[in-house]
Amino acid sequence: MARTTGRSTTHLTRRLVQLYVGLTLYGASSALLVRAELGLEPWGVLHQGLAELTGISIGVVSIIVGAVVLLLWIPMRQRPGLGTVSNVFVVGLAMDGTLAVVGDLDGLGLRVPVMVLGIVLNGVATGLYIAARFGPGPRDGLMTGLHRVTGRSIRLVRTAIEVAVVVTGFLLGGSLGAGTVLYALAIGPLAQLFLRMFALPEPAAAGVTVASGEPSTTAPPGGSGPVAGPASGQAILPQ
User: Which positions of the chain have pLDDT values less than 50?
Assistant: First the structure.
């Protein structure tokens, strides 16, 4: 029993580490795309546009937008998790922190590699925090909630949300460019790759000792590791 409890505690600790490392890296990756100045991810375009309009830092804008989106969960009866609430604050704080450390970049020879690094790092971050299974981000929950309430496909709901977000952000002064297009094309495959890489088995399948002293041979259901339910599996694109 003690060994089982110890394994469960270790498993929970690893999940928590993955969650917060992933959210921190997500904010850092978004900041790198800002510094590259070659186009942001869809929600980043909106955050930047609002930051330009209000004079508030883009990280704080991200927190405010996340909180507002989370309020929209209430009429849809969506239930947030630890990861949902943490997403609102950690990503924005990490973004502003990274922007304070990484200054403006001169020349495409530096900006292009930083753009690519930002996109790849975003994929790593997405795989980490979703595989931790602490609930989807507020923007992901908006998508899945609208899908459930309206009966429309995830693809249609997601496209409608992101088109509205990008257009609004662009009109407010947000940055569109090659980075936006490359992000849209690359983030799905990258996130899927890193979801598999950082997948965590359930504690009962992670070599739990049984009475005979032999490790259990029970394996997690195929494909259950990276995505712990429809909401997580559908949350592999922006936040």
Answer: 205-239
Check: CB of residue 64 under 8 Å from CB of residue 43: no
Give, in order, the Cα–Cα distances in Å from 135 to each of 57, 81, 83, 173, 237: 26, 5, 5, 31, 15
CA distance 174 to 43: 10
> In the 8-state DSSP scheme, what is residue 234?
T
As a whole number of angstroms, the distance between CA 145 and CA 86 comes to 19
pLDDT at residue 1, as a whole number: 56
- Phi-psi region at 229: left, alpha or beta (left = phi > 0; alpha = psi -120 to 50): left
Q: What whole-number distance in Å separates Cα of residue 233 and Cα of residue 223?
A: 10
How far apart are the two ends of the chain, measured CA to CA in Å?
Answer: 38
Bridge partners of 215, per DSSP, are: 209
Amino acid code (one letter) for 101:
V
What's the pLDDT tens digit per position in 116-150? 999 999 999 999 998 999 988 898 889 888 988 99
| DSSP letters for 33-63 | HHHHTS---HHHHHHHHHHHHH---HHHHHH
Rg (CA), the chain: 19
Q: Which two tokens stand for residue 221?
A: 């259901």
Q: How far apart are CA 60 and CA 75, in angstroms?
A: 25
Both tokens of residue 108? 């495409």
Distance, in Å, from the CA atom of 134 to the CA atom of 128, rounded to the nearest integer, reads: 11
